[in-house]
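Narrative of activities, Objective 1.

The group set out to show that a structural description can be obtained from nothing but a protein's sequence at a throughput compatible with the screening campaign. Below is one input-output pair from the validation batch, recorded exactly as produced.
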Amino acid sequence: MERKMNEAVAPAVSLPAAEKEIPPRDAAVDNLRSGVVLSVIFYHAFYMLNSQGVPSTLGVKGIPVLDAVEYFLYPWFMALLFVLAGISARYALAHRTGRQFWHERVQRLLVPSVGCFFLLDWIITWVLSRYVDLFGGSGAAVPLPVKYLVYCLAGIGPLWFCHVLLVFSALLLAVRRLDKNEVLPRLGKKAANLPVLLVLAFAVWGAAQLGNMPVITVYRFGIYGFCFAAGYCIFSHAEVQAVLAGRHALLLAAAVLCGAVYSVFYFGKNYGEQAVMGTFFTNAYAWLMILALLGTARARWNRETAFTRWMRPRSFGFFVLHYPLMAVLGWLLATVLALPAAAVYPLWLLLTALLLIPLEAAVRHTPGLRWWILGCKKSVEKQKSSVQ
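Output recorded for this entry:
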Protein backbone atom coordinates (compact mmCIF):
# COMPACT_ATOMS: atom_id res chain seq x y z
CA MET A 1 0.00 0.00 0.00
CA GLU A 2 2.77 2.44 0.98
CA ARG A 3 4.74 1.63 -2.16
CA LYS A 4 1.70 2.33 -4.36
CA MET A 5 1.15 5.66 -2.63
CA ASN A 6 4.77 6.69 -3.09
CA GLU A 7 4.81 5.65 -6.75
CA ALA A 8 1.65 7.67 -7.33
CA VAL A 9 3.49 10.78 -6.17
CA ALA A 10 6.23 10.46 -8.81
CA PRO A 11 5.33 7.83 -11.40
CA ALA A 12 7.81 9.02 -14.00
CA VAL A 13 10.91 9.28 -11.83
CA SER A 14 14.00 7.57 -13.24
CA LEU A 15 16.09 6.15 -10.41
CA PRO A 16 19.58 4.68 -10.13
CA ALA A 17 19.64 0.91 -9.74
CA ALA A 18 20.97 1.21 -6.18
CA GLU A 19 17.94 3.26 -5.15
CA LYS A 20 15.43 0.85 -6.69
CA GLU A 21 16.50 -1.76 -4.13
CA ILE A 22 15.37 0.40 -1.22
CA PRO A 23 12.19 -0.85 0.46
CA PRO A 24 9.32 1.50 1.28
CA ARG A 25 9.30 3.10 4.72
CA ASP A 26 8.34 0.48 7.27
CA ALA A 27 6.59 0.19 10.62
CA ALA A 28 9.80 -0.16 12.65
CA VAL A 29 11.04 3.30 11.64
CA ASP A 30 7.66 4.95 12.17
CA ASN A 31 7.05 3.25 15.51
CA LEU A 32 10.48 4.19 16.80
CA ARG A 33 9.96 7.79 15.69
CA SER A 34 6.65 7.95 17.54
CA GLY A 35 8.34 6.50 20.61
CA VAL A 36 11.04 9.17 20.49
CA VAL A 37 8.40 11.91 20.25
CA LEU A 38 6.68 10.53 23.34
CA SER A 39 10.03 10.40 25.14
CA VAL A 40 10.62 14.08 24.24
CA ILE A 41 7.30 15.00 25.86
CA PHE A 42 8.14 12.89 28.93
CA TYR A 43 11.61 14.47 29.15
CA HIS A 44 10.28 18.02 29.12
CA ALA A 45 8.19 17.43 32.24
CA PHE A 46 11.42 16.82 34.15
CA TYR A 47 13.58 19.29 32.24
CA MET A 48 11.35 22.27 33.08
CA LEU A 49 11.72 21.49 36.80
CA ASN A 50 15.40 20.55 36.69
CA SER A 51 17.68 21.30 39.62
CA GLN A 52 20.97 21.09 37.72
CA GLY A 53 21.28 24.64 36.41
CA VAL A 54 20.11 23.77 32.90
CA PRO A 55 18.19 26.84 31.60
CA SER A 56 14.49 26.12 31.14
CA THR A 57 11.18 27.95 30.82
CA LEU A 58 10.06 27.56 34.42
CA GLY A 59 11.93 29.21 37.28
CA VAL A 60 10.86 26.45 39.68
CA LYS A 61 12.91 23.57 41.05
CA GLY A 62 11.53 20.08 41.23
CA ILE A 63 12.67 16.90 42.98
CA PRO A 64 16.42 16.62 42.32
CA VAL A 65 16.62 12.82 42.18
CA LEU A 66 14.09 12.79 39.32
CA ASP A 67 16.58 14.72 37.18
CA ALA A 68 18.11 11.30 36.50
CA VAL A 69 15.44 10.94 33.80
CA GLU A 70 16.98 13.89 31.94
CA TYR A 71 20.50 12.47 32.12
CA PHE A 72 19.33 9.11 30.81
CA LEU A 73 17.42 10.55 27.83
CA TYR A 74 19.23 13.72 26.78
CA PRO A 75 22.40 12.32 25.14
CA TRP A 76 20.61 10.17 22.55
CA PHE A 77 16.93 10.87 21.88
CA MET A 78 17.34 13.78 19.47
CA ALA A 79 20.37 12.17 17.84
CA LEU A 80 18.20 9.11 17.21
CA LEU A 81 15.51 11.32 15.69
CA PHE A 82 18.06 12.60 13.16
CA VAL A 83 19.13 9.02 12.37
CA LEU A 84 15.49 8.16 11.66
CA ALA A 85 15.17 11.30 9.53
CA GLY A 86 18.15 10.16 7.48
CA ILE A 87 16.66 6.70 6.96
CA SER A 88 13.32 8.19 5.91
CA ALA A 89 15.05 10.64 3.55
CA ARG A 90 16.64 7.76 1.63
CA TYR A 91 13.37 5.85 1.52
CA ALA A 92 11.59 8.99 0.28
CA LEU A 93 14.18 9.78 -2.39
CA ALA A 94 13.83 6.26 -3.77
CA HIS A 95 10.38 7.30 -5.02
CA ARG A 96 10.78 11.04 -5.58
CA THR A 97 12.91 13.43 -7.53
CA GLY A 98 15.11 15.86 -5.65
CA ARG A 99 12.70 18.66 -6.53
CA GLN A 100 9.72 16.76 -5.12
CA PHE A 101 11.67 15.87 -1.98
CA TRP A 102 12.68 19.51 -1.42
CA HIS A 103 9.15 20.76 -1.99
CA GLU A 104 7.89 18.35 0.66
CA ARG A 105 10.59 19.36 3.12
CA VAL A 106 9.81 23.05 2.66
CA GLN A 107 6.14 22.34 3.29
CA ARG A 108 6.72 20.06 6.27
CA LEU A 109 9.62 21.91 7.91
CA LEU A 110 9.94 25.53 6.76
CA VAL A 111 6.23 26.40 6.78
CA PRO A 112 5.69 25.19 10.38
CA SER A 113 8.89 26.97 11.43
CA VAL A 114 7.47 30.26 10.19
CA GLY A 115 3.95 29.60 11.41
CA CYS A 116 4.95 28.45 14.88
CA PHE A 117 7.33 31.40 15.16
CA PHE A 118 4.37 33.79 15.11
CA LEU A 119 1.63 31.59 16.58
CA LEU A 120 3.29 29.55 19.34
CA ASP A 121 6.78 30.79 20.24
CA TRP A 122 5.52 33.85 22.09
CA ILE A 123 3.65 31.62 24.56
CA ILE A 124 6.88 30.00 25.72
CA THR A 125 8.59 33.35 26.31
CA TRP A 126 5.50 34.77 28.00
CA VAL A 127 5.71 31.96 30.56
CA LEU A 128 9.44 32.62 30.96
CA SER A 129 8.68 36.29 31.62
CA ARG A 130 6.72 35.22 34.72
CA TYR A 131 10.09 34.36 36.26
CA VAL A 132 12.62 36.55 34.45
CA ASP A 133 12.55 40.30 33.79
CA LEU A 134 13.33 40.25 30.09
CA PHE A 135 13.29 44.04 29.68
CA GLY A 136 15.26 45.13 32.72
CA GLY A 137 12.35 46.76 34.54
CA SER A 138 11.16 48.74 31.52
CA GLY A 139 8.67 46.17 30.21
CA ALA A 140 5.70 48.49 30.73
CA ALA A 141 7.22 51.06 28.38
CA VAL A 142 7.90 48.57 25.57
CA PRO A 143 5.26 48.75 22.82
CA LEU A 144 3.16 45.62 22.57
CA PRO A 145 4.19 44.81 18.94
CA VAL A 146 7.87 45.02 19.91
CA LYS A 147 7.31 42.88 22.98
CA TYR A 148 5.45 40.33 20.86
CA LEU A 149 8.35 40.06 18.40
CA VAL A 150 10.85 39.69 21.23
CA TYR A 151 8.72 36.95 22.72
CA CYS A 152 8.57 35.19 19.36
CA LEU A 153 12.33 35.40 18.84
CA ALA A 154 13.15 34.05 22.31
CA GLY A 155 10.67 31.16 22.36
CA ILE A 156 12.20 28.65 19.99
CA GLY A 157 10.83 25.52 21.68
CA PRO A 158 11.32 22.24 19.75
CA LEU A 159 11.25 23.95 16.34
CA TRP A 160 15.05 24.00 16.28
CA PHE A 161 14.82 20.41 15.05
CA CYS A 162 12.99 21.55 11.91
CA HIS A 163 15.57 24.28 11.27
CA VAL A 164 18.52 21.89 11.50
CA LEU A 165 16.79 19.16 9.49
CA LEU A 166 15.96 21.59 6.70
CA VAL A 167 19.64 22.51 6.43
CA PHE A 168 20.62 18.85 6.30
CA SER A 169 17.99 18.16 3.63
CA ALA A 170 19.44 20.90 1.43
CA LEU A 171 22.98 19.58 1.95
CA LEU A 172 21.82 16.06 1.14
CA LEU A 173 20.46 17.13 -2.23
CA ALA A 174 23.73 18.91 -2.99
CA VAL A 175 25.77 15.81 -2.09
CA ARG A 176 23.50 13.59 -4.19
CA ARG A 177 24.17 15.76 -7.23
CA LEU A 178 27.89 15.03 -6.76
CA ASP A 179 27.44 11.37 -5.79
CA LYS A 180 25.19 10.32 -8.65
CA ASN A 181 26.35 6.69 -8.48
CA GLU A 182 25.42 6.33 -4.80
CA VAL A 183 28.99 5.60 -3.73
CA LEU A 184 28.44 6.76 -0.15
CA PRO A 185 25.37 4.57 0.50
CA ARG A 186 27.18 1.59 -1.03
CA LEU A 187 30.06 2.16 1.36
CA GLY A 188 27.57 2.43 4.21
CA LYS A 189 26.18 -0.98 3.34
CA LYS A 190 29.60 -2.48 4.11
CA ALA A 191 29.13 -1.46 7.75
CA ALA A 192 26.80 -4.44 8.24
CA ASN A 193 29.11 -5.73 10.93
CA LEU A 194 28.62 -5.16 14.65
CA PRO A 195 32.28 -4.37 15.54
CA VAL A 196 32.38 -1.79 12.74
CA LEU A 197 29.14 -0.21 13.93
CA LEU A 198 30.44 -0.03 17.50
CA VAL A 199 33.75 1.52 16.43
CA LEU A 200 31.79 4.32 14.76
CA ALA A 201 31.32 5.70 18.29
CA PHE A 202 34.71 7.38 17.78
CA ALA A 203 33.33 9.16 14.71
CA VAL A 204 30.31 10.28 16.72
CA TRP A 205 32.65 11.62 19.40
CA GLY A 206 34.64 13.54 16.80
CA ALA A 207 31.50 14.98 15.21
CA ALA A 208 30.32 16.14 18.63
CA GLN A 209 33.28 18.54 18.77
CA LEU A 210 32.19 20.37 15.61
CA GLY A 211 29.45 22.82 14.68
CA ASN A 212 28.17 23.58 18.19
CA MET A 213 26.44 26.93 18.64
CA PRO A 214 27.85 28.87 21.62
CA VAL A 215 24.59 30.23 23.07
CA ILE A 216 21.69 28.16 21.73
CA THR A 217 23.34 24.84 22.53
CA VAL A 218 20.62 22.67 20.96
CA TYR A 219 22.02 23.61 17.53
CA ARG A 220 24.69 20.88 17.41
CA PHE A 221 25.32 20.59 13.68
CA GLY A 222 28.28 18.23 13.94
CA ILE A 223 26.83 15.26 15.76
CA TYR A 224 23.32 15.67 14.36
CA GLY A 225 24.72 15.95 10.85
CA PHE A 226 26.69 12.74 11.35
CA CYS A 227 23.58 10.96 12.67
CA PHE A 228 21.50 12.14 9.72
CA ALA A 229 24.20 10.98 7.29
CA ALA A 230 24.53 7.65 9.10
CA GLY A 231 20.79 7.12 8.85
CA TYR A 232 20.88 7.84 5.12
CA CYS A 233 24.04 5.95 4.18
CA ILE A 234 24.22 3.13 6.75
CA PHE A 235 21.03 2.37 8.64
CA SER A 236 18.76 2.54 5.60
CA HIS A 237 20.19 -0.83 4.51
CA ALA A 238 18.27 -3.96 5.47
CA GLU A 239 21.56 -5.82 6.04
CA VAL A 240 22.69 -3.32 8.68
CA GLN A 241 19.32 -3.39 10.39
CA ALA A 242 19.41 -7.20 10.42
CA VAL A 243 22.78 -7.19 12.20
CA LEU A 244 21.39 -4.92 14.92
CA ALA A 245 18.18 -6.91 15.20
CA GLY A 246 20.16 -10.11 15.73
CA ARG A 247 21.96 -8.62 18.75
CA HIS A 248 19.25 -6.27 19.98
CA ALA A 249 18.79 -7.86 23.42
CA LEU A 250 22.49 -7.70 24.25
CA LEU A 251 22.80 -4.17 22.87
CA LEU A 252 19.77 -2.93 24.80
CA ALA A 253 20.96 -4.44 28.08
CA ALA A 254 24.41 -2.87 27.59
CA ALA A 255 22.89 0.50 26.67
CA VAL A 256 20.59 0.61 29.70
CA LEU A 257 23.47 -0.34 32.00
CA CYS A 258 25.68 2.31 30.39
CA GLY A 259 22.89 4.87 30.78
CA ALA A 260 22.54 4.11 34.47
CA VAL A 261 26.29 4.49 35.02
CA TYR A 262 26.32 7.66 32.93
CA SER A 263 23.46 9.20 34.92
CA VAL A 264 25.23 8.51 38.21
CA PHE A 265 28.63 9.63 36.97
CA TYR A 266 27.47 13.02 35.67
CA PHE A 267 24.61 13.63 38.08
CA GLY A 268 24.69 17.20 39.42
CA LYS A 269 26.50 18.63 36.40
CA ASN A 270 24.92 20.72 33.66
CA TYR A 271 24.33 17.91 31.18
CA GLY A 272 23.62 20.37 28.34
CA GLU A 273 27.08 21.94 28.36
CA GLN A 274 29.78 20.90 25.91
CA ALA A 275 31.97 19.88 28.86
CA VAL A 276 29.60 16.93 29.29
CA MET A 277 28.15 16.51 25.80
CA GLY A 278 31.59 16.51 24.20
CA THR A 279 33.07 13.65 26.23
CA PHE A 280 33.70 10.23 24.75
CA PHE A 281 31.59 8.60 27.47
CA THR A 282 28.55 10.70 26.56
CA ASN A 283 28.81 10.03 22.85
CA ALA A 284 29.63 6.34 23.22
CA TYR A 285 26.56 5.92 25.40
CA ALA A 286 24.40 7.83 22.91
CA TRP A 287 25.63 5.72 20.00
CA LEU A 288 25.17 2.45 21.89
CA MET A 289 21.58 3.37 22.74
CA ILE A 290 20.89 4.34 19.13
CA LEU A 291 22.18 0.98 17.90
CA ALA A 292 20.20 -0.85 20.57
CA LEU A 293 16.90 0.87 19.81
CA LEU A 294 17.29 0.53 16.05
CA GLY A 295 17.86 -3.20 16.51
CA THR A 296 15.03 -3.57 19.00
CA ALA A 297 12.62 -1.72 16.73
CA ARG A 298 13.51 -4.01 13.83
CA ALA A 299 13.20 -7.17 15.93
CA ARG A 300 10.25 -6.33 18.18
CA TRP A 301 8.35 -3.27 16.94
CA ASN A 302 8.17 -3.91 13.21
CA ARG A 303 4.40 -4.19 13.04
CA GLU A 304 1.36 -1.96 13.09
CA THR A 305 -1.19 -1.85 15.88
CA ALA A 306 -4.28 0.27 16.37
CA PHE A 307 -2.22 2.65 18.54
CA THR A 308 0.71 2.96 16.12
CA ARG A 309 -1.66 3.64 13.20
CA TRP A 310 -3.34 6.34 15.28
CA MET A 311 -0.07 7.81 16.56
CA ARG A 312 1.97 7.95 13.36
CA PRO A 313 0.18 10.84 11.57
CA ARG A 314 -0.16 12.78 14.83
CA SER A 315 3.42 12.58 16.09
CA PHE A 316 4.56 15.80 14.39
CA GLY A 317 1.60 17.71 15.81
CA PHE A 318 2.35 16.40 19.28
CA PHE A 319 6.01 17.34 18.78
CA VAL A 320 5.41 21.00 17.93
CA LEU A 321 2.40 21.63 20.20
CA HIS A 322 3.42 19.96 23.45
CA TYR A 323 6.04 22.44 24.62
CA PRO A 324 3.94 25.64 24.79
CA LEU A 325 1.10 23.63 26.31
CA MET A 326 3.40 22.15 28.95
CA ALA A 327 4.93 25.54 29.70
CA VAL A 328 1.51 27.02 30.50
CA LEU A 329 0.42 23.97 32.50
CA GLY A 330 3.68 23.93 34.46
CA TRP A 331 3.34 27.61 35.34
CA LEU A 332 -0.25 27.10 36.50
CA LEU A 333 0.52 24.03 38.59
CA ALA A 334 3.89 24.99 40.07
CA THR A 335 3.48 28.76 40.47
CA VAL A 336 -0.14 29.88 40.34
CA LEU A 337 -1.48 26.93 42.35
CA ALA A 338 1.88 26.43 44.10
CA LEU A 339 1.40 22.67 44.33
CA PRO A 340 4.20 20.57 45.81
CA ALA A 341 6.57 19.10 43.24
CA ALA A 342 5.45 15.56 44.07
CA ALA A 343 1.97 16.50 42.86
CA VAL A 344 3.11 18.61 39.91
CA TYR A 345 4.87 15.82 38.01
CA PRO A 346 1.95 13.35 37.70
CA LEU A 347 -0.67 16.08 37.22
CA TRP A 348 1.47 17.74 34.59
CA LEU A 349 1.87 14.58 32.54
CA LEU A 350 -1.80 13.65 32.95
CA LEU A 351 -3.09 17.07 31.89
CA THR A 352 -0.67 17.18 28.97
CA ALA A 353 -1.96 13.83 27.74
CA LEU A 354 -5.59 14.87 28.17
CA LEU A 355 -5.24 18.30 26.51
CA LEU A 356 -2.65 17.63 23.83
CA ILE A 357 -4.90 15.21 21.94
CA PRO A 358 -7.85 17.62 21.48
CA LEU A 359 -5.43 20.52 20.86
CA GLU A 360 -3.76 18.62 18.02
CA ALA A 361 -7.17 17.63 16.66
CA ALA A 362 -8.35 21.23 16.71
CA VAL A 363 -5.28 22.37 14.78
CA ARG A 364 -5.60 19.46 12.35
CA HIS A 365 -9.22 20.30 11.50
CA THR A 366 -8.63 24.05 11.07
CA PRO A 367 -7.28 24.66 7.54
CA GLY A 368 -5.21 27.78 8.26
CA LEU A 369 -3.68 26.39 11.45
CA ARG A 370 -3.16 22.99 9.84
CA TRP A 371 -1.03 24.61 7.14
CA TRP A 372 1.01 26.98 9.30
CA ILE A 373 1.57 24.68 12.28
CA LEU A 374 1.56 21.19 10.77
CA GLY A 375 2.57 21.98 7.20
CA CYS A 376 -0.40 20.00 5.87
CA LYS A 377 -2.86 21.11 3.21
CA LYS A 378 -5.17 18.16 3.85
CA SER A 379 -6.45 16.63 7.06
CA VAL A 380 -3.73 14.63 8.75
CA GLU A 381 -5.80 11.45 8.48
CA LYS A 382 -5.05 11.66 4.74
CA GLN A 383 -1.36 12.07 5.34
CA LYS A 384 1.16 9.28 5.82
CA SER A 385 4.04 11.55 6.77
CA SER A 386 5.32 12.16 10.28
CA VAL A 387 8.38 13.94 11.78
CA GLN A 388 11.03 13.45 9.09
